[in-house]
Amino acid sequence: MEMNIFNDRDLSWLSFNKRVLDETLLDDLKIYDKIKFLAIHSSNLDEFARVRLAALENEAEQSSPEEREMHLKALYDARQEVYNQSLASRKILEQVVLPQLRSHNINLYYGDSTYLQEHYEEMIHIFMSKVLSYLQPVTITSHTNVFLEDRMLYFLVHVNAGRRLNDLKIVLNIPANSLPRFFTLSKVDDKHYIVYLDDIIRIGVQSLFKNFEFKGIYSIKINRNADLHVDDDTEDEADFVEVLQRGLDLRKTGAPSRFQYDASMPETLIKFCHQQFQLEEGEMLPVGHYLSSSDFFRFPNPNGGSLQQANWTPLKHPSLSLYGNYFNAIASQDYLIHFPYQSYDYVLVFFNLAVLDQDVTEIMATFYRVAQDSHIVNALISAAKNGKKVKAFVELKARFDEANNLHWANEMAKAGVEITYSIPGIKVHAKAALIKRRENGKEKKYAFFGTGNFNEKTAAIYSDMGLFTSNPNLCNELESMFQYLYKRQQPAPFKHLLVSQFGSLEKFVQLIDNEIAAAKQGQPSGIIIKVNNLEEEEVINKLYEASRAGVPIKLCVRSICRIKPGVPGLSENIELIRVVGRYLEHSRVFIFHNKGQQDIYLGSADWMKRNLRSRVEVVFPVYDEAIKKQVLDFIAIQFTPATKTQWLSPNLEPMPWEEEVKQYCPQQSFYDYLKNQQSQ
């Protein structure tokens, strides 16, 4: 049987999420950091269920009879792994997190805990004074249509009310969207006590309805298909916004993709849920007494900062910080900033100076995920009100940020910013800005290129890079890309930037081919790639070809990874690692040996079909030699054997390092590297 040369897309992503969960098992991670990773893992599974499980269901339903078995197996495998990880998360909570909390005198009432009398009375008071008004019980009858909202928590309450009402089933909301999921109770004997909102409701409801015989109260939760499938063929922006809004409304009522329920629920009620909520058997997963560990993002911390790792103070750039006027600085040389290791304030200052500088005539920017309270957008609004020409391209198809992006687009438009919305059939994922300035009677251009969004919130937790430059070649080509976005003017061929839709895939293939040719001629060669996702089969096949030709290839892939490294005769020259740390690895780096000249590119594009074929992405070259060295040093740190770096097998299983583990975490090492540069 011929070997499948590609890993499964969804299982590869789930292996990354398993790695996130494994962070909780590291002994030197503080307890509240472990709790944070539990929350991240749960939130990731929710999104996977809403998007990928739903997509796999659709693919299975719409597939031909010949391919249906293959699609059903992919769906089954993904569901099974989601279920396994859900159980593993609960086990870690019960066997690792809760005992460690108790060792710090923090007690979470859990499961069959016996409540102290004073806490029982306190919980009744909380229920009556703060919770009861938010409860919306619905008795299920043959005439009742009960709709469970996506990601909301509910109880299925089974009661005997006497007489003919001996088998009532009631759906009761758990209002964690309006109230805290966890309440802190009174301290007793130097011990802190915390209780789930769920348990306050369990106790309160039973005390309120003492004449009812409670047969059972079971947690349930549904995930629904959240893919909009917006028909964006229209060129009319007003029509598209209307279509998008309808899509957002439909998302709330999407078909079920995952139904979680208390594993203690009896078979009769499981069958009842199956029928009542129109579920498929494979969608139903028995998990535990409590659902939605993502709420642990807001778990109370009565002991303060001692139980979590200290934040790293964002560093200053060693030379850009010396300038009061960034335009003078950027006119003299390029600057690369590493977020969040170095302060994101440099980007904010760049935009704020453009607002205040009387010589700035025009500002252009792209937005994919806008922060909810965006300083950058407010700067553009101020610039427009000050009479400057401001243009913004806002991508309205950024999944789960559509409504927020639309809000800010409307706010900018009100202030006079020239807004352009989505391009039909294509997402604009580029992260770039261009500023035009009058200097000595001539126009001078300044650009910012990023690997991450113009978003202050994500910039604090995503590891990204940003380049400030006044290089005319890069600035002119960026303006050409903006003209395409704003006016659909077909750009001239790009010679410096790699822009998806305009030859970036072909350029990447050419760069790999150059390394293949060098290896075949017996010359040094090499490829180093760092991306979030690697899925595009044409690129993977080209990397396999390069490996067979003898090109050494190093890959750092965070999430989806379909390539199989280290397979004899196919990919024995390919090494694959994954880095997970306090920051989400998000920067994309592309390095090609090029006879020792080191072609280095950074940008917004992963090597996925969608990024290379159905998005507008910008990948930009690094020309400054000092910046090149810094990027190479960063990559060297990433690939140094480390406790928090996984070296992966062909099936994406972690393997023991053949070399001595030389560092704990590459992110810590790189922060120290930049800190040392700052002090020199």
Core attributes:
alpha/beta; globular; 680 residues; 9-stranded mixed sheet; 21% strand
Give a short summary of the structure:
This protein is α/β, with parallel strands linked by helices and 680 residues long. Strand 12, helix 11 and strand 13 form a beta-alpha-beta unit.
Structure description:
- The structure is a single chain.
- The protein has 680 residues and is an alpha/beta fold.
- The chain has 18 helices and 28 strands.
- The strands form 5 sheets. Strands 18-26-24-23-19-20-21-27-28 form a 9-stranded mixed β-sheet, with helices on both faces. Strands 10, 11, 12, 13, 15, 16, 17 and 22 form an 8-stranded mixed β-sheet that branches.
- The longest helix has 39 residues, at 65-103.
- The radius of gyration is 27 Å and the shape is globular.
- 43% of the residues are buried.
- The mean pLDDT is 93.
Question: Which class best fits the helix and strand makeup?
Answer: alpha/beta
Quickly count the helices: 18
How confident is the prediction overall: mean pLDDT? 93
Order of strands across the biggest sheet?
18-26-24-23-19-20-21-27-28
Unreliable stretches covering 5 or more consecutive residues = none
Number of strands: 28
Shape: globular
Give a short account of the largest sheet: 9 strands, mixed
Compute the CA-based radius of gyration.
Answer: 27 Å
